[in-house]
């Protein structure tokens, strides 16, 4: 990444700006919060300092990922309702349900390698926010700016190394132009190391507002937002609320989770007249994932949707978040991050006017072929290899 930034700067200095790439950096929320706690800054200050830092390195645009997060949630909601209705019509409802979360590449890669044909049909086809951001930058923004996708270098800031594997999937690579939707993933811990290497602190960077290239109308509130529900993006909560409203006309369902084996496996149900209409769960960490898959194998899973995340406690505790500094335990740090996530203003995806505008101006309407191409993906069973060197992602 640093090499690309430096090469680009040199091209500008040499008067060859036409050969330089447009460098775009997308900041996801969980590493912003991790760095906020690390440098004792507020979440908004951290985002602005990150913007200042990346601009100092040579970035042209630094963005948050709310638009991609909201697209991911809305498409997951729509997909769930479609699957639920299809399951009701089908002789064998287990063809369509449960729907399993798709935003965690740690989980998706594991499913592809170990339980291909059993699990893959159940994983939501909606791309993760990182890859939706990739489509937004390399398709929508490229067209808007009259650029080709390969003339943009897209960096994302993420909470885990698995996001690098996700970015490198063939499905997200433009073979003709030899470019990816996400060219480089940097994690919170790598960013901390970069700053340490240069004897710098994020706190001493200039504060620069984030860019908003999606619409001429700026959002009324530019503060960072999170979503109701888990710190992994709120999928279970928001799909549950949407399904209760859309399928059963219930706009205020009781959203009370019950922990099952451990706090990382909890479920919530919607009940009416003693009948369970919706049964959702959040399963974090591989121990719980294995239990879930075993249940599915035995035909004993009664879930309609499961938010599956590979890291214990989900994305706030991602494998490449900054480690605890002050002698606190990883669990204490995660609880602190959860509290900061919770303190942010809650975003309602349906109320994101920019996303609604992009559905018509960029995607030619919801349900269009373009929508499928830009916001959805496919998964592939990966044969078991005999040596670690042959691992295919
Ligand atoms: S749960 Fe962990 S591996 Fe999965 S996307 Fe979140 S941080 Fe990455």
TrEMBL record:
Q: Which residues form the Iron hydrogenase small subunit domain?
A: 327-383
What superkingdom heads the lineage? Eukaryota
The UniProt GO MF terms for this protein read: 4 iron, 4 sulfur cluster binding
UniProt keywords, alphabetically: 4Fe-4S, Iron, Iron-sulfur, Metal-binding
Q: What does the UniProt function comment say about this protein?
A: Component of the cytosolic iron-sulfur (Fe/S) protein assembly machinery. Required for maturation of extramitochondrial Fe/S proteins.
Q: Which PANTHER family match?
A: NITRATE, FORMATE, IRON DEHYDROGENASE (PTHR11615)
Q: What is this protein called?
A: Putative cytosolic Fe-S cluster assembly factor
> What species was this sequence derived from?
Cryptotermes secundus
Upper classification of the organism: Eukaryota, Metazoa, Ecdysozoa, Arthropoda, Hexapoda
């Amino acid at each position: 990444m640093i090499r690309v930034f430096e090469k680009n700067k040199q091209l500008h200095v040499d008067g060859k700006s036409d050969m330089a790439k447009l460098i775009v950096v997308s900041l996801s929320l969980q590493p912003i919060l991790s760095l906020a706690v690390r440098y004792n800054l507020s979440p908004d200050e951290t985002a602005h300092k990150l913007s200042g830092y990346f601009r100092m390195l040579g970035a042209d645009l630094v963005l948050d990922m709310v638009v991609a997060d909201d697209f991911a949630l809305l498409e997951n909601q729509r997909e769930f309702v479609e699957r639920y209705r299809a399951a009701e019509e089908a002789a064998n409802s287990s063809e369509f349900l449960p729907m399993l979360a798709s935003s965690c590449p740690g989980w998706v890669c594991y499913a592809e390698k170990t339980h291909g044909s059993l699990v893959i049909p159940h994983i939501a086809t909606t791309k993760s926010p990182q890859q939706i951001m990739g489509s937004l930058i390399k398709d929508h923004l490229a067209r808007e700016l009259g650029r080709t996708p390969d003339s943009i270098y897209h960096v994302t800031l993420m909470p885990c190394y698995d996001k690098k594997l996700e970015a490198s999937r063939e499905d997200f690579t433009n073979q003709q132009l030899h470019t990816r939707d996400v060219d480089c993933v940097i994690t919170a811990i790598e960013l901390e190391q970069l700053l340490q290497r240069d004897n710098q602190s994020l706190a001493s960077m200039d504060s620069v507002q984030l860019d908003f290239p999606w619409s001429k109308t700026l959002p009324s509130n530019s503060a960072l937002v999170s979503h109701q529900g888990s710190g992994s993006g709120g999928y279970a909560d928001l799909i549950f609320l949407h399904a209760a409203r859309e399928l059963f006309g219930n706009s205020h369902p009781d959203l009370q989770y019950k922990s099952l084996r451990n706090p990382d496996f909890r479920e919530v149900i919607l009940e009416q007249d003693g009948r369970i209409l919706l049964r959702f769960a959040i399963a974090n960490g591989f121990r719980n994932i294995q239990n879930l898959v075993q249940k599915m194998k035995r035909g004993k899973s009664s879930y309609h949707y499961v938010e599956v995340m590979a890291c214990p406690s989900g994305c706030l505790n991602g494998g490449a978040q900054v480690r605890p500094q002050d002698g606190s335990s990883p669990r204490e740090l995660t609880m602190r991050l959860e509290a900061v996530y919770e303190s942010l203003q809650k975003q309602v995806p349906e109320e994101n006017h920019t996303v609604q505008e992009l559905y018509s101006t960029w995607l030619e309407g919801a349900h269009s072929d373009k929508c499928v191409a830009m916001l959805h993906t496919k998964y592939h069973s990966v044969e078991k290899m005999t040596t670690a060197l042959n691992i295919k992602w």
